[in-house]
Write a structure and sequence with these properties.
This protein has a seven-stranded mixed sheet, with helices on both faces. A four-stranded mixed sheet has the order 1-2-3-15. A three-stranded antiparallel sheet has the order 13-14-16, covered by helices on one side. It is an alpha/beta fold. Helix content is 37%, strand content 16%. The structure holds 4'-deoxy-4'-aminopyridoxal-5'-phosphate.
Length: 422
Amino acid sequence: PTLSERDRAVIWHPFTQMQTAPLPISILRGEGAVLYDETGNEYIDAISSWWVNLHGHAHPYIAERVAQQLRTLEHVIFAGFTHKPAVELAERLLPILPGNQAKIFYSDNGSTAVEVALKMAFQYWHNIGQPRTRVIALEDAYHGDTFGAMAVGGRSAFTAPFVPFLFDVDYIPAPVPGREDEALAKLEALLDETVAAFIFEPLVQGAGGMVMYQPGVLDKLMQLARNAGALLIADEVMTGFGRTGRLFASHYLTEQPDLMCLSKGLTGGTMALGVTTCTNAIYEAFLSDDKFKTLFHGHSFTANPLACTAALASLDLTLSEETQANIQRIADRHERFSQVLQGYSTVKAIRQHGTILAFDLDAGGQTSYFNNIRDVVYNFLLDRGVLMRPLGNVLYMLPPYCITDEQLTYVYEQVEALLKTL
Ligand code: PMP
């Protein structure tokens, strides 16, 4: 049997259990923006896998650093102990983060980075003796699939079985062009002294369909929430580390978050790591001789030294002149390709922030996940050696920064070839 057949016998994958789902493609290795499968096919990874591989696959610099760390210290309990990669990473992250983020809390992935931020927010109010219990989030948000993260995500058919177990959240529309005033009015109406936090994906709502909005209106929403005392949680799990053109999407803002969530590109897509950051004001509410004021949250693999080392290596690459130039190059090319896309009648709502380019396919009202158009698009591009995984009828690109001009041209050409068939 092939690897794919052996997989089907023993593995339960996320999101792919449709009876009709084809066997998973077995990837043997990756290099730069390209993945190589068991049968000799190549795929340009135009979405950085699950939006994580900033520097492409199997980057030799990250590999070497992690290998060295593996031979030195692979893991150690992070209660009562610390180690160099964790300290160095925190020291390097804090000065480049927006606002006055003062402390780094390590966890394992994006969902737990969000989970931790929510726990910090709720417990902050508890610890200072003014309990606040409500959260406001954006419609169609995605913050992960643990229970807290699901609770603050937009409700969908996927979360339906869990709704009875999720805490109540109030939603406002994402402030996309044309809905700014509605979002502002709704937030204003919802805010009072019971709101613990306002959580949002700054500028781009990823899994909700690469929904994009402008910094000015987010600043206004943040001001309103702050005036009501609510803590501001910026989920930069997807937008962090250059995706929107600047290092963090929050760098486009005047207002700054109290808590930030990072993951995905944090390690350049090599190791699972999550980070929640907070201001001193929040941290200090947990400093007490009352042991029940401590944050009850710690994973076995928190601050894993290999993952922290991978993040340090990825950060070196991200901050390099070469990568910064690549981010600009991809953004410029996306902008030019947007003009081309405007020539297709099936392409609607073209939107771009930096290296993220998205548009809606107007395919006769078929807008749900797992619909025909999604499969047609996915398979058409895969057959031509391009990995893009549409979100319903939303097609998007989010390539690794190392993608070459030739590879990017090839991806654009295949998207145009697809559009010509629709
Ligand atoms: N927040 C955002 C904005 C995300 O895009 C995601 C993942 N798509 C998550 C949180 C959850 O991250 P993870 O899948 O690593 O748990």
